[in-house]
Amino acid sequence: MSTTELTSRVQVLGAPGDRFDEILTPAALDFIGRLARTFADRYRDVLTERRRRALRLSSGSPLDFSLATSALRADPHWRVAPPAPGLADRRVEITGPPERRMTIDALNSGAQVWLADFEDATSPTWDNIIGGQLNLRDAIERRIDFTTPDGRGYRLGEELATIVVRPRGWHLTEEHLLVDGRPVPASLVDFGLYFFHCAQRQIDAGSGPYFYLPKLENAYDARLWNDVFVFAQDLLGIPRGTIRATVLIETVTAAFEMEEILYELREHSAGLNAGRWDYLFSLIKIFAHRPDFSLPDRTKVTMTAPFLRAYTELLVRTCHKRGAHAIGGMAAHVPGHDAQADGAALAKVRLDKEREAEDGFDGTWVAHPGLVPFCRDIFDGVLDGRLHQIDRTRDDVHVSADELLAVRRTAGPPTEDGVRASISVALRYFDAWLRGTGAVALDGLMEDAATAEIARAQIWQWLRHGAVERDTVLALLDDEIAALGAEYPWARVDDVRALFERTALARELPAFFTPDAYARHLVQHAGVTA
Ligand SMILES: CC(=O)SCCNC(=O)CCNC(=O)[C@H](O)C(C)(C)COP(=O)(O)OP(=O)(O)OC[C@H]1O[C@@H](n2cnc3c(N)ncnc32)[C@H](O)[C@@H]1OP(=O)(O)O
Ligand SMILES: O=CC(=O)O
Ligand SMILES: [Mg+2]
């Protein structure tokens, strides 16, 4: 089949934008078409399996390590690939959306890695998705710069962070690109466009096409990614094993399959990350119907909670046993927004990062450039000149299924302030997201899609278990909607309220707020152009 025939069945429904034609070339669209067609059935299977598993768990099926893969876990011999160029030293990784100015700031931040995020930190408007791809390509070609209206100039320095791209998860589709009349899985769009345009450029620059994989639920998801990598590398003539991917362990089911996930991706694996915020969200969601899994105010659930300690300890042990990096999670404090609160908040961040480094993590995440030297110093203090501590096997760690699920020891009712804070965060974040911004600082904390999911899911769970009265929630909702409108006269209060009602107050808890909000508010078809 010729390229033209293939391309003619790839339709671009998003509006044209400045230089979008440099990304949406016929050859790139053909590549996306091939990916989408090749993996269409597997993708549907992944989603079906996720739904079945969620149903089984919500109807009381126990969650445990799989007997079927016990031999793989017991086999001491296999290892993942050694660290790839630019990925040995990952002491500090800065995350953020691939927005033009932030791209430059993140690359210059002094962090070892920049996670260019199309998932939790990006509202997936068509402009953000294709604009982000342009920024990445411009950055790799070192032809990215930016000038503010008041004349402040931004350009790349000499020492840059290694770029690692986080595509959207398997739960999202890209409705502005159709292949054979169907929307393309968003994961394949973000991965495919970046890989097509930047893989060879990255290799030529001495690094590689590297990825972070979000919201995996099991090893089956990882196998699909691995097969996508093999197919994409073969198609572009790039040697197998060039891609490296770090998987976020940010669902409870994935925590029971860490070794299996590393194994599926082993020639492409760059380790695991403890994605703490989505992990909490996943716990709330999967056990939404269980009163003993109902957590108190978010501020009271810290990484020292026994069930979270079990998860991070198991992650480090698993990674180091298999020669892989273990990367820590995000402390949500945004420095510099509240001088009075900064001191106490930084003291908490210090404890959190010290614990990670001492537990054996090889690096950690920051959401803000102001935290890069702070966290690097903490890791340097423990690493003592080494780039990582993968050789520190944690044979002392033994984590059982019960320990991973020992939420009841932390469970408890919310306070009224906690309920109000969750409603307020969800509303203010939804408003930002609907207007195209995927990460914001609210009350000195970084809020993104993962933390907003926690906020609205906690409200649902508290209502479900009678921890708060519906009338109280409705009264607080009225208050917070009024406050949002007063603070931001341009806020989309009606859309935000309706989104909150559908995702926090409905009879059943929707799996994510993003597919609903995306379909209703971000999809704008401009017409068929290819
Ligand atoms: C749960 C998870 O998945 S965590 C990962 C996903 N979430 C994220 O990646 C969030 C990333 N962080 C951010 O987006 C931002 O830090 C925010 C929105 C939280 C706060 O941003 P701001 O309010 O602009 O912070 P602030 O005003 O202090 O920024 C100071 C400067 O640092 C820059 N900056 C802040 N955060 C970042 C970042 N993550 N990457 C690059 N530059 C950044 C700002 O652009 C600003 O630059 P300027 O001085 O050139 O104008
Ligand atoms: O993606 C990271 C998380 O904490 O969620
Ligand atoms: Mg996440």
UniProtKB/TrEMBL annotation:
Domain Malate synthase C-terminal as annotated: residue spans: 415-519
Domain Malate synthase TIM barrel: 162-406
Catalysed reactions, semicolon-separated: glyoxylate + acetyl-CoA + H2O = (S)-malate + CoA + H(+)
GO MF, one annotated term: malate synthase activity
Enzyme class: transferase
Pathway(s) annotated for this protein in UniProt: Carbohydrate metabolism; glyoxylate cycle; (S)-malate from isocitrate: step 2/2
Sequence ranges assigned to domain Malate synthase N-terminal in this UniProt record: 10-66
Family annotation (SUPFAM superfamilies): Malate synthase G
Membrane-spanning segments: none
Pfam families: MS_C, MS_N, MS_TIM-barrel
Documented EC number(s): 2.3.3.9
Keywords, comma-separated and alphabetical: Acyltransferase, Glyoxylate bypass, Transferase, Tricarboxylic acid cycle
Family: Belongs to the malate synthase family.
UniProt name for this protein: Malate synthase
Organism: Streptomyces decoyicus
